[in-house]
Amino acid sequence: MKETSVLCLLFLISLLSCTTNQARLTVSPSSSQFFKEDFVSLSCEEDDSSAGWTLRRNTSTENRTKCDQWGKSANSSCTIIVYPSDSGVYWCESREGPISNMVNLTVTGGSVILQSPVLPVMEGDDVTLLCKTKTTPSNLPAAFYKDGSLISNGSSVNMTIQHVSRSDEGLYKCDISGHGESNSSWITVTDKHTTTPPPTSTSPPGFSITPVMSSVGSVCFVILLVLLVLLIRQHVHRKFEGETQIS
């Protein structure tokens, strides 16, 4: 009986330690592309501030570096004046190990960017893409592309995708004649019932988007599974002993 109580206690402790509220990384201005020397603010939004969320990133030259090494940190937020070398994958990470959604930020030294949702968008929502130049008037007509194919060649700098669905997921870019083409950005569409944006699976070539601590969830699952098996075996063993004594 004592062994069973100990196993139950260990199971409950493991369950509680593996249940951690997940933060959501937000970016302001809300865009996945920026011009060189733009001011960008990143923040880990989560109800339980005691989790101690830290902003980290992977770039072509850095791996899992904290905000203190490339920006100005304040609580669970980080501000930075961006340059092309700041292009990479950003996420929030807690002391306990869980991580937030990941976002790809691209910084260009060119003259055209595509402003698109940096976080996954909900099925059925309308999404507006904006083709933006750094120094020229903002009313120039733009062409928009999805997965390399032209989808709009209108007279406006923006394009609205109405009632998005999973088929609208893909790589988008824009072009303003005489000024250049933007980089490509991935747009993710989530199910209406999804409450937490999943980590993005796309990243610039050569970047690792899976931090070491992302395996913590799997470790917790294995621990809970082992303890559950031990509890079941203990219960079956005690039941077998009881039946043997009766017979």
TrEMBL record:
Protein name according to UniProt: Ig-like domain-containing protein
Signal sequence annotation: 1-23
Molecular function GO labels: transmembrane signaling receptor activity
Top-level taxon of origin: Eukaryota
Biological process annotations from GO: cell surface receptor signaling pathway; immune response
PANTHER family: FC RECEPTOR-LIKE PROTEIN 4, IMMUNOGLOBULIN FC RECEPTOR
Keywords of this entry: Disulfide bond, Membrane, Signal, Transmembrane, Transmembrane helix
GO CC annotation: external side of plasma membrane
Membrane-spanning ranges: 212-232
